[in-house]
Amino acid sequence: MLHDRASLSSECADAVLSACEDAGICSSDGAVDLVISREGVGNALDEIMSKRERGEEYVEKKKDVLETLMRSRYANLYSLLKDNLSEESYLGIVRNQILVDVQGEDLLFQIFTCNVLQREAGDEAPFLEFIQRVCSECSAGPDGCPLPVKPGCGGFGIRNFLTLFLSIEVSKAMRECSLAKSTGGDDDDDGSAALSLSRRKVELFTSQLNESNPILTAISDAMTAEGRAETNMNA
Protein backbone atom coordinates (compact mmCIF):
# COMPACT_ATOMS: atom_id res chain seq x y z
CA MET A 1 0.00 0.00 0.00
CA LEU A 2 2.81 2.43 0.88
CA HIS A 3 4.59 1.54 -2.35
CA ASP A 4 1.53 2.24 -4.50
CA ARG A 5 -0.37 4.99 -2.71
CA ALA A 6 2.51 6.97 -1.24
CA SER A 7 4.70 6.49 -4.34
CA LEU A 8 7.58 5.09 -2.31
CA SER A 9 10.26 2.78 -3.59
CA SER A 10 9.91 -0.79 -2.38
CA GLU A 11 12.96 -0.34 -0.17
CA CYS A 12 11.60 2.80 1.48
CA ALA A 13 8.14 1.26 1.90
CA ASP A 14 9.69 -1.74 3.67
CA ALA A 15 11.75 0.57 5.88
CA VAL A 16 8.70 2.64 6.85
CA LEU A 17 6.65 -0.49 7.58
CA SER A 18 9.45 -1.85 9.75
CA ALA A 19 9.63 1.48 11.57
CA CYS A 20 5.87 1.39 12.14
CA GLU A 21 6.17 -2.06 13.70
CA ASP A 22 9.05 -0.93 15.92
CA ALA A 23 7.07 2.11 17.06
CA GLY A 24 3.92 0.08 17.74
CA ILE A 25 1.99 1.95 15.06
CA CYS A 26 1.03 -1.29 13.35
CA SER A 27 1.07 -4.98 14.15
CA SER A 28 3.32 -7.53 12.51
CA ASP A 29 0.61 -8.29 9.95
CA GLY A 30 0.39 -4.63 8.93
CA ALA A 31 -2.84 -3.70 10.74
CA VAL A 32 -2.56 -0.06 11.85
CA ASP A 33 -3.62 0.82 15.39
CA LEU A 34 -6.96 2.64 15.50
CA VAL A 35 -5.89 4.80 18.45
CA ILE A 36 -3.17 6.88 16.83
CA SER A 37 -2.80 10.50 15.85
CA ARG A 38 -1.25 11.94 12.72
CA GLU A 39 1.14 14.02 14.81
CA GLY A 40 2.17 11.07 16.96
CA VAL A 41 2.82 8.86 13.94
CA GLY A 42 4.81 11.60 12.26
CA ASN A 43 6.99 12.23 15.31
CA ALA A 44 7.67 8.52 15.83
CA LEU A 45 8.58 7.92 12.19
CA ASP A 46 10.73 11.05 12.03
CA GLU A 47 12.86 9.80 14.90
CA ILE A 48 13.25 6.25 13.59
CA MET A 49 13.64 7.03 9.88
CA SER A 50 16.31 9.66 10.58
CA LYS A 51 18.59 6.77 11.58
CA ARG A 52 17.78 4.46 8.68
CA GLU A 53 18.46 4.21 5.00
CA ARG A 54 15.90 5.83 2.70
CA GLY A 55 15.29 8.50 5.34
CA GLU A 56 15.54 11.27 2.77
CA GLU A 57 12.93 9.65 0.54
CA TYR A 58 10.63 9.31 3.56
CA VAL A 59 11.01 13.02 4.38
CA GLU A 60 10.20 13.94 0.79
CA LYS A 61 7.04 11.79 0.78
CA LYS A 62 6.12 12.24 4.45
CA LYS A 63 2.73 13.85 3.81
CA ASP A 64 1.65 11.01 1.50
CA VAL A 65 3.04 8.40 3.90
CA LEU A 66 1.05 9.77 6.84
CA GLU A 67 -2.12 10.06 4.76
CA THR A 68 -1.75 6.47 3.56
CA LEU A 69 -1.12 5.13 7.05
CA MET A 70 -4.02 6.99 8.62
CA ARG A 71 -6.43 6.02 5.85
CA SER A 72 -5.28 2.38 5.82
CA ARG A 73 -7.37 1.87 8.96
CA TYR A 74 -10.48 2.10 6.78
CA ALA A 75 -9.09 1.82 3.24
CA ASN A 76 -11.76 -0.54 1.88
CA LEU A 77 -14.56 1.61 3.30
CA TYR A 78 -13.02 4.75 1.85
CA SER A 79 -12.76 3.20 -1.60
CA LEU A 80 -16.54 2.78 -1.46
CA LEU A 81 -17.73 5.91 0.35
CA LYS A 82 -14.93 8.42 -0.39
CA ASP A 83 -15.33 11.74 1.45
CA ASN A 84 -18.98 11.21 2.38
CA LEU A 85 -18.02 10.33 5.96
CA SER A 86 -15.63 11.94 8.42
CA GLU A 87 -12.55 10.14 9.71
CA GLU A 88 -14.26 9.87 13.09
CA SER A 89 -17.27 8.15 11.52
CA TYR A 90 -15.06 5.75 9.58
CA LEU A 91 -13.16 4.78 12.72
CA GLY A 92 -16.40 4.29 14.64
CA ILE A 93 -17.62 1.89 11.95
CA VAL A 94 -14.36 -0.08 12.01
CA ARG A 95 -14.14 -0.10 15.80
CA ASN A 96 -17.67 -1.47 16.12
CA GLN A 97 -17.18 -3.94 13.25
CA ILE A 98 -20.14 -2.64 11.25
CA LEU A 99 -20.61 -3.60 7.63
CA VAL A 100 -21.48 -0.69 5.37
CA ASP A 101 -23.06 -0.56 1.95
CA VAL A 102 -24.37 2.23 -0.22
CA GLN A 103 -27.41 2.36 -2.49
CA GLY A 104 -27.86 5.57 -4.39
CA GLU A 105 -27.36 8.28 -1.77
CA ASP A 106 -28.32 6.01 1.14
CA LEU A 107 -25.98 4.30 3.57
CA LEU A 108 -26.76 0.92 5.08
CA PHE A 109 -25.22 -0.21 8.36
CA GLN A 110 -25.36 -3.93 9.13
CA ILE A 111 -24.34 -6.03 12.12
CA PHE A 112 -24.69 -9.77 12.71
CA THR A 113 -25.01 -11.78 15.90
CA CYS A 114 -23.29 -15.07 16.61
CA ASN A 115 -25.31 -18.24 16.09
CA VAL A 116 -28.45 -18.47 18.23
CA LEU A 117 -30.53 -21.50 19.27
CA GLN A 118 -27.53 -23.74 18.67
CA ARG A 119 -27.57 -27.00 20.65
CA GLU A 120 -24.02 -28.13 19.89
CA ALA A 121 -20.96 -26.41 18.45
CA GLY A 122 -20.82 -27.14 14.74
CA ASP A 123 -24.60 -27.57 14.37
CA GLU A 124 -26.39 -25.50 11.77
CA ALA A 125 -28.03 -22.53 13.46
CA PRO A 126 -29.58 -19.18 12.54
CA PHE A 127 -28.17 -15.76 13.32
CA LEU A 128 -29.76 -12.34 13.52
CA GLU A 129 -28.96 -9.46 11.20
CA PHE A 130 -29.75 -5.84 12.02
CA ILE A 131 -29.84 -3.21 9.28
CA GLN A 132 -30.04 0.55 9.68
CA ARG A 133 -30.61 2.61 6.56
CA VAL A 134 -29.51 6.23 6.71
CA CYS A 135 -31.73 7.67 4.01
CA SER A 136 -30.78 10.33 1.53
CA GLU A 137 -31.31 13.97 2.35
CA CYS A 138 -30.30 15.27 -1.06
CA SER A 139 -32.64 17.76 -2.70
CA ALA A 140 -33.54 15.61 -5.68
CA GLY A 141 -37.29 16.12 -5.89
CA PRO A 142 -38.90 18.44 -8.46
CA ASP A 143 -39.91 20.81 -5.65
CA GLY A 144 -36.37 20.94 -4.29
CA CYS A 145 -37.33 18.94 -1.20
CA PRO A 146 -35.79 15.64 -0.13
CA LEU A 147 -37.28 12.58 -1.80
CA PRO A 148 -39.78 10.70 0.37
CA VAL A 149 -38.68 7.47 2.00
CA LYS A 150 -40.08 4.43 0.22
CA PRO A 151 -42.09 1.88 2.20
CA GLY A 152 -39.65 -0.82 3.18
CA CYS A 153 -36.88 1.63 2.33
CA GLY A 154 -35.51 -0.17 -0.69
CA GLY A 155 -33.99 -3.40 0.57
CA PHE A 156 -30.49 -4.02 1.85
CA GLY A 157 -26.93 -4.01 0.58
CA ILE A 158 -26.11 -6.39 -2.24
CA ARG A 159 -22.39 -6.05 -1.54
CA ASN A 160 -22.25 -7.14 2.04
CA PHE A 161 -22.64 -10.90 1.81
CA LEU A 162 -19.57 -11.19 -0.41
CA THR A 163 -17.75 -8.50 1.58
CA LEU A 164 -18.54 -10.27 4.85
CA PHE A 165 -17.03 -13.58 3.81
CA LEU A 166 -14.01 -12.04 2.09
CA SER A 167 -13.37 -9.86 5.15
CA ILE A 168 -13.47 -12.94 7.35
CA GLU A 169 -10.90 -14.64 5.12
CA VAL A 170 -8.65 -11.55 5.12
CA SER A 171 -8.77 -11.38 8.92
CA LYS A 172 -8.03 -15.10 9.20
CA ALA A 173 -5.06 -14.80 6.83
CA MET A 174 -3.71 -11.81 8.77
CA ARG A 175 -3.85 -13.84 11.99
CA GLU A 176 -1.99 -16.67 10.25
CA CYS A 177 0.62 -14.15 9.12
CA SER A 178 1.08 -12.85 12.67
CA LEU A 179 1.38 -16.40 14.01
CA ALA A 180 3.95 -17.34 11.38
CA LYS A 181 6.03 -14.27 12.24
CA SER A 182 5.80 -14.82 16.00
CA THR A 183 7.00 -18.42 15.64
CA GLY A 184 10.08 -17.45 13.66
CA GLY A 185 8.70 -17.56 10.16
CA ASP A 186 11.94 -16.32 8.64
CA ASP A 187 14.20 -18.76 10.49
CA ASP A 188 13.43 -22.05 8.75
CA ASP A 189 12.02 -23.34 5.47
CA ASP A 190 8.67 -24.48 6.89
CA GLY A 191 8.13 -21.23 8.75
CA SER A 192 9.15 -19.17 5.74
CA ALA A 193 6.72 -21.10 3.54
CA ALA A 194 3.87 -20.58 6.03
CA LEU A 195 4.62 -16.86 6.24
CA SER A 196 4.79 -16.53 2.47
CA LEU A 197 1.50 -18.42 2.05
CA SER A 198 -0.33 -16.32 4.64
CA ARG A 199 0.90 -13.09 3.04
CA ARG A 200 -0.24 -14.33 -0.35
CA LYS A 201 -3.68 -15.12 1.09
CA VAL A 202 -3.99 -11.58 2.43
CA GLU A 203 -3.04 -10.18 -0.97
CA LEU A 204 -5.45 -12.43 -2.87
CA PHE A 205 -8.49 -11.88 -0.66
CA THR A 206 -7.84 -8.14 -0.49
CA SER A 207 -7.53 -8.08 -4.27
CA GLN A 208 -10.88 -9.87 -4.56
CA LEU A 209 -12.46 -7.27 -2.29
CA ASN A 210 -11.06 -4.46 -4.41
CA GLU A 211 -12.06 -6.05 -7.72
CA SER A 212 -15.58 -6.97 -6.64
CA ASN A 213 -16.48 -3.50 -5.36
CA PRO A 214 -16.89 -1.73 -8.74
CA ILE A 215 -18.85 -4.66 -10.17
CA LEU A 216 -21.24 -4.76 -7.24
CA THR A 217 -21.46 -0.97 -7.29
CA ALA A 218 -22.59 -1.08 -10.92
CA ILE A 219 -25.26 -3.67 -10.06
CA SER A 220 -26.45 -1.64 -7.08
CA ASP A 221 -26.54 1.61 -9.07
CA ALA A 222 -28.50 -0.10 -11.86
CA MET A 223 -31.07 -1.36 -9.34
CA THR A 224 -31.38 2.14 -7.87
CA ALA A 225 -31.77 3.70 -11.33
CA GLU A 226 -34.42 1.13 -12.23
CA GLY A 227 -36.41 2.00 -9.12
CA ARG A 228 -36.23 5.72 -9.85
CA ALA A 229 -37.23 5.22 -13.48
CA GLU A 230 -40.22 3.14 -12.42
CA THR A 231 -41.24 5.79 -9.89
CA ASN A 232 -41.00 8.56 -12.49
CA MET A 233 -42.92 6.49 -15.04
CA ASN A 234 -45.77 5.88 -12.61
CA ALA A 235 -45.87 9.46 -11.33
TrEMBL record:
It is an enzyme of class 1 (oxidoreductase). The keyword Thylakoid does not apply. GO terms for molecular function: 4-hydroxyphenylpyruvate dioxygenase activity. Pathway: Amino-acid degradation; L-phenylalanine degradation; acetoacetate and fumarate from L-phenylalanine: step 3/6. The lineage of its organism: Eukaryota, Sar, Stramenopiles, Ochrophyta, Bacillariophyta. It comes from the Eukaryota. The keyword DNA-binding does not apply. InterPro entries: 4OHPhenylPyrv_dOase, Glyas_Bleomycin-R_OHBP_Dase. It comes from Odontella aurita. This is 4-hydroxyphenylpyruvate dioxygenase. Its EC number is 1.13.11.27.
